[in-house]
Specification:
single chain, alpha/beta, 14 helices
């Protein structure tokens, strides 16, 4: 991953390939943001005018490149848009800094070293810029010629297909290298970005190389590296334990399912969080086969499990004072002679029976078993994460995930946390009248209900498998988990790592006692 350092050096004397400065959108044109004073001075105080001449306005994510002033050791200045100038007495918010740093990192692909002279008011600003720079520099090159070597090639490096390598090194100017808070902010950003980028790697990995067994192996290696306990239930253990939902979904595949438990223990911590992730490593729809045009990106249907995995490992790396358990419900949903059929009835781990009306509504089946198992440990709260329904994408679009819960206060807290860390979300209801649509004449419940409000119906189904008295929330990340459009800010094309930062911040706030 991109290397990151804090520097007190002046922008003019720093040996780098580019200097990154911020520019904001003012009432009368672009405004040079704090942090770039020395650069502006080198342009005789006319940097804003030069940028305006070049067409820059300071809009969010806008990138303008220009030759560095005479006397600078770096040959290039890159001005990145921060959006509107903040109101008086208020600085740039963390998300604006994250997005600007991410856009700059992407624009500097193929560059060996860049110095970021963006507004730094405190340690939180340092952390936001570090996080954005590291996430924005992400590139998935594993399946390109010489891809694994591109990050070390330096300026103008390209992989075997001609794509530029990620920015190799970032120096943050204006931060305080010896200040404990600034150092801690960078350490947090580095751990978080490394694990979030690993989640992106998993989502982007082709399903022929990432089946349930392979995913479990990745989790096992990471758990051992970071002192996290791990338990993997294979198909024999799942059959013995009666996990009918997970087994039913995986019945049609030659790659058998797995249930992975990751346990981070903080010693004397009093609070316990459980995260549950949907991990369908490929979703063909099963017998209810998806049509062409709807299955090409279904390698991303394990993004929920990737997010849970990343969050648990991050919590361990940060040494948070909260116990965190992650459950990865892994299966491949394929059609075959052994596959579950529409009309089949599955007996779940909870003992409830489910009539399967549509085998493409499989995520809720694997989650149901994992939610029941997670509930046995009586955690203080459970959050499940899943690319669950197309209905949620229809409702909220491709960048916003839905938040449902059995507790309004918990739902509100999660929504606020998601917005705080820069993950757009929206609270959604669980209308009880929709439950009747899942009544089955054959089983305790069907896996389908009314078509309208399908995302809410899926949430109501999951609620049936949560233990009594446990606060629970469901994050439907079907929209933002996989970006099929152009990159923006620090978000790449492909796997995004959606929900990782929300889960980590929930763990941090719980550890700090900010949540009841």
């Amino acid at each position: 991953m991109t290397a990151l350092t804090l520097s007190t050096a002046a922008a003019s004397g720093l040996r780098a390939d580019a200097i990154v400065v911020g520019v904001a959108k003012g009432a009368k044109g672009p405004v040079v943001a704090p942090g770039a004073e020395s650069v502006d001075k080198a342009y005789d105080g006319k940097l804003a005018s030069v940028l305006e001449t070049l067409g820059a306005a300071g809009a969010e994510g806008e990138v303008t490149k220009l030759p560095a002033p005479s006397g600078f050791k770096a040959p290039l200045v890159l001005a990145v848009g921060l959006g509107a100038v903040p109101e008086k007495d208020s600085g740039y918010d963390a998300e604006a800094l994250r997005r600007a740093a991410g856009a700059a990192s992407r624009a500097l692909a193929g560059t060996k070293k860049a110095a970021f002279a963006l507004p730094v008011e405190d340690a939180a600003g340092t952390g936001a810029i570090a996080e954005g720079a590291l996430l924005g520099a992400y590139s998935f090159d594993a399946y390109k010629d010489n891809g694994e070597d591109t990050a070390a090639k330096g300026k103008d490096a390209k992989d075997g297909k001609g794509a530029k390598a990620p920015l190799a090194e970032v120096a943050l100017l204006g931060a305080k290298p010896r200040d404990k808070a600034h150092k801690a902010a960078v350490e947090r950003a580095t751990a978080l970005a490394e694990e979030l980028n690993r989640a992106r790697d998993l989502v982007n990995t082709p399903p022929n190389d990432l089946n349930p067994e392979a995913f479990a192996a990745v989790a096992t290696a990471a758990a051992k590296e970071h002192g996290v306990k791990i338990q993997v239930l294979d198909e024999k253990a799942l059959a013995k334990g009666g996990y009918g939902g997970i087994l039913g979904v995986g019945a049609g595949s030659q790659a058998p399912p797995r249930l992975v438990k990751l346990s981070y223990s903080a010693g004397k911590a009093k609070k316990h969080l459980a995260f549950v992730g949907k991990g369908i490593t490929y979703d063909s729809g099963g017998i209810s086969l998806k049509p062409a045009g709807h299955n090409e990106t279904m390698k991303c249907d394990m993004a929920g499990a990737a997010a849970v995995f990343a969050a648990v490992i991050t919590a361990a790396r940060l040494g948070l004072d909260v116990n965190v358990t992650g459950w990865l419900a892994l299966a491949e949903n394929m059609p075959s002679g052994s596959a579950t059929r529409p009309g089949d009835v599955l007996r779940m781990y909870s003992g409830k029976t489910v009539e399967v009306l549509n085998t493409d509504a499989e995520g809720r089946l694997v989650l149901a078993d994992a939610l029941t198992k997670a509930s046995e440990e009586k955690p203080d709260a459970i959050v499940d994460v899943a690319t669950l329904t197309g209905a949620m994408v229809m409702a909220l679009g491709g960048r916003t995930f839905g938040v449902m819960a059995n507790d309004d206060a918990f739902r509100t807290s999660l929504h606020e946390i998601a917005e705080e860390v820069g993950e757009p979300s929206w609270p959604m209801p669980l209308p009880e009248h929709l439950r009747k649509g899942m009544d089955s004449p054959t089983a305790d419940i069907a896996n389908m209900g009314e078509r309208m409000g399908g995302g809410l119906v899926a949430g109501l189904f999951l609620k049936e498998f949560v233990g009594e008295g446990i606060a629970w929330a469901h994050l439907d990340i079907a929209g933002p988990a996989y970006n099929e459009s152009a990159p923006f800010g620090y978000t790449p094309k492909g796997g995004t790592g959606s929900a990782v930062r929300t889960l980590v911040r929930l763990a941090e706030r719980t550890a700090a006692g900010d949540l009841g």
